[in-house]
Write a structure and sequence with these properties.
Helix content: 25-40%
Strand content: 5-15%
CATH topology of the largest domain: Rossmann fold
Shape: elongated
Order of helices and strands: HHEEHEHEEHEHEHEHEHEHHH
Distance between the termini: 39 Å
Number of helices: 12
Largest sheet: 6 strands, parallel
Mean pLDDT: 94
Strand order of the largest sheet: 7-6-5-8-9-10
Oligomer: single chain
Radius of gyration: 21 Å
CATH superfamily of the largest domain: Glycogen Phosphorylase B
């Protein structure tokens, strides 16, 4: 199958990045959806630069409503330039409606990201060690995790923490400098393996040998890809009910009430993570049955087949509604709109 990646719209932020938005765009243009349908549309990933008046203009949003790039959506005349605005989670759409005063309408829709199922047998995971993983940029809660894990090492000698974390994920190598002290704390603990940036395919393969996603998240996310993939890989996921995490997990994981005070959050997370380790140690067979159910849920909810179908359906319907370049012209025939200088 030949992909359609040459049609992907890029901007100054995405061209060197490999985050969730970029993974989503490669998925959308992977060759499953007919090229002739995609050629009729301008699918814009969050950051609006130039609008093409002869195309079906679809704004797909992966960022938060608080993002400065989102602020023009407060203006109905700006929203009217698009034939559809697509969110990746219901929590995210509700935030846009609430914070930007956007009315509830059929101009918007939610299509969750597709994610390839991870083929794993839970009984084949290592039994001599419990592997924990953190796989996100460091500002999302790594500092809490490292302090908690160092303390848990005093109690559990058979735990290992694999840290896949770096701003190289977004091509922002210089941002890592401010977290070098935290990275060094990882290197100083013999029970922590600091991997730095790990390409997406390699990370998904590594998840098969991990047992717990340890994610004391303090950064709101609209939808969490590493959480989706961890559920598919049969991991016991420990995280707060913050931002879009509860929407993503459907409450199936070890989800807890966090706190904006980092010390209190760390204490809560210590208890939850310790409980998860104890469960894996003492009740692994019973827990695996439950995690098999969680995996089945994740694989069904975020199936690539479902996501491709919904996107192709949307493109087909818009083509039928706006069949000609003339019918697609934005109000006032404005061809270019820049949200930043």
């Amino acid at each position: 199958m030949t992909n359609n990646w040459d049609l992907i719209e890029q901007n100054e932020s995405s061209k060197n990045a490999n985050g969730g938005t970029e993974i989503f765009m490669r998925f959308l243009y992977d060759g499953t959806i007919p090229r002739e349908l995609l050629q009729e549309a301008q699918i814009i990933p969050a950051r609006v630069r130039e609008l093409q008046n002869d195309k079906l203009r679809i704004l797909t949003l992966h960022n938060l409503a608080e993002d400065p790039e989102s602020s023009p959506l407060k203006d109905s005349s700006f929203r009217d330039k698009f034939h559809k605005i697509v969110f990746i989670s219901n929590w995210q759409m509700q935030q846009y409606m609430s914070l930007l005063n956007i009315p509830y309408s059929d101009k918007m829709t939610v299509i969750e990201s597709g994610s390839e199922n991870i083929d794993v047998k839970l009984q084949d995971k290592p039994t001599d060690v419990i592997n924990l993983v953190y796989a996100s940029t460091p500002q999302r809660g790594l500092a809490i995790l490292v302090e908690v894990f160092n303390k848990l090492c005093e109690k559990h000698k058979n735990i290992r923490l694999h840290v896949h974390s770096s701003f190289k994920l977004y091509g922002w190598d210089d941002y890592d400098a401010q977290f070098e002290e935290l990275y060094q704390k990882c290197r100083d603990n013999p029970q922590i393996i600091y991997h730095g940036y790990t390409p997406h395919a390699e990370l998904k393969a590594a998840l098969k040998d991990y047992h717990i996603l340890a994610y004391p998240n303090i950064w709101q996310e609209t939808q969490c890809r590493v959480l989706i993939e961890s559920m598919s890989a049969g991991l016991l996921c420990v995280h707060p009910n913050f931002g879009g995490l509860w929407d993503t997990s459907a409450g199936l994981n070890f989800t807890y009430q966090g706190d904006q005070d980092m010390h209190r959050h760390a204490n809560i997370f210590y208890y939850e993570l310790d409980k998860a380790i104890e469960n894996l140690t003492r009740n692994r067979e019973d827990l695996n049955q439950y995690l098999t159910f969680v995996k089945s849920y994740a694989d069904f909810r975020w199936s690539t087949r479902k996501a491709h179908f919904l996107w192709q359906k949307l493109l087909t319907e818009l083509n039928q509604q706006y069949p000609t370049p003339e019918s697609r012209k934005p109000p006032e025939n404005i061809l270019t709109f820049r949200t930043t200088p």
